[in-house]
Amino acid sequence: MSTQDQQSTQNLTLVQAVRDGLYGELERDDDVIVMGEDVGKNGGVFRATEGLWDEFGDERVIDTPLAESGIAGTAVGMAAYGLKPVAEMQFSGFMYPAFDQIVSHAARLRNRSRGRYTASMVVRAPYGGGIRAPEHHSESKEAFYVHEPGLKVVIPSTPYDTKGLLAASIRDPDPVIFLEPKLIYRAFREEVPDDTYTVELGKAAVRREGTDISVFTWGAMTRPTMEAAEDLAEDGIDVEVVDLRTLSPMDTETIVESFKKTGRAAVVHEAPQTGGLAGEITATIQEEALLYQEAPVKRITGFDVPFPLYALEDYYLPEKARVADGIREAVEF
Questions:
Q1: Residue among 136, 137, 147, 269 flagged as catalytic
Q2: Mind listing the pLDDT tens digit for each residue in 253-290?
């Protein structure tokens, strides 16, 4: 442990920050329930819930059957009753059987009941590619959930943000889809306070200030974007990097203000390009800041194909060189 600003901290990986965030909220609020496949005794497939069952018991940390629809539906019922369930899906690609429960019930409960009930619940899932996993383990389908009114969608990129955003999501009165970029689960460490804290939902973070172009990204793509920005600085290209963190609600104010400063933009995400959120961000820029635009917005994304198996995985994901080439293209237009 170290002391930072007189506050006790630990040097945690992102997945450890998930576990620490869950521990803090379980300890803080007796209504918080953690549930999912193998989250109890086993501690989860990525060990994100390791030790929670030992500390809080099987009435607070619940091993469920392998039935994603049942997990989500049970969580909706718990939330309507007044509990605060945190339901884990082992991989985001396994969430599709739960889609009906999430979009038809969790997302609509407040509106359907005219505010009498809310679904204060979180659905957690490791998402994204890069770990050489088989089919259904590597998709980036965040746009599915952003498109659904009534859901909030959060994707952290650092351990500090992970713990704070997870706590804010659990305390939120409405359902939150919390997607964890498993590619960077153990990629690096960061000082994280021991005490519970929240990071406000709906607020982007400017990771690097710049004047030549604004690059918008989230999750695991934040790291190669930052690396590309540092390399381009050596060539005199000053890149502003904005980590959106919350995709719904999206921080359009920060997007627009950044773009007005630079006049150029790129969006980096690993989801396929067609229907991806790069299009929504581009439309927002067109509507709110068209007269500031000096070049077409560049989309640096995954391809419109099923996520490939191992040999082609590195070609599919935007990496530092492809990100840098896309940024350079927008700057030199």
A1: 137
A2: 999 999 999 999 999 999 999 999 999 999 999 999 99
Q: For the domain covering 9-193, report its CATH number.
A: 3.40.50.970
What global pTM score does this model have? 0.95
Instruction: Say yes or no: do domains 9-193 and 205-332 share a fold.
Output: yes
Our CA dihedral for 287, 278, 245, 179, rounded to 10 degrees, sits at 140
Q: Is 147 a catalytic residue?
A: no
Burial grade of 246 (CB within 10 A; 0-12, 13-18, 19 or more): buried
Architecture of the CATH domain 205-332 = 3-Layer(aba) Sandwich (3.40)
Torsion region of 121: left, alpha or beta (phi above 0 gives left; psi -120 to 50 gives alpha): beta
Tell me, what amino acid is at 290? L
Round to whole Å and give the CA distance between 290 and 195. 44
Domain ranges, ordered by start, for the chain: 9-193, 205-332
* Residue 300, strand partner residues: 268
> Phi, psi (5° rounding) for residue 208?
-150, 125
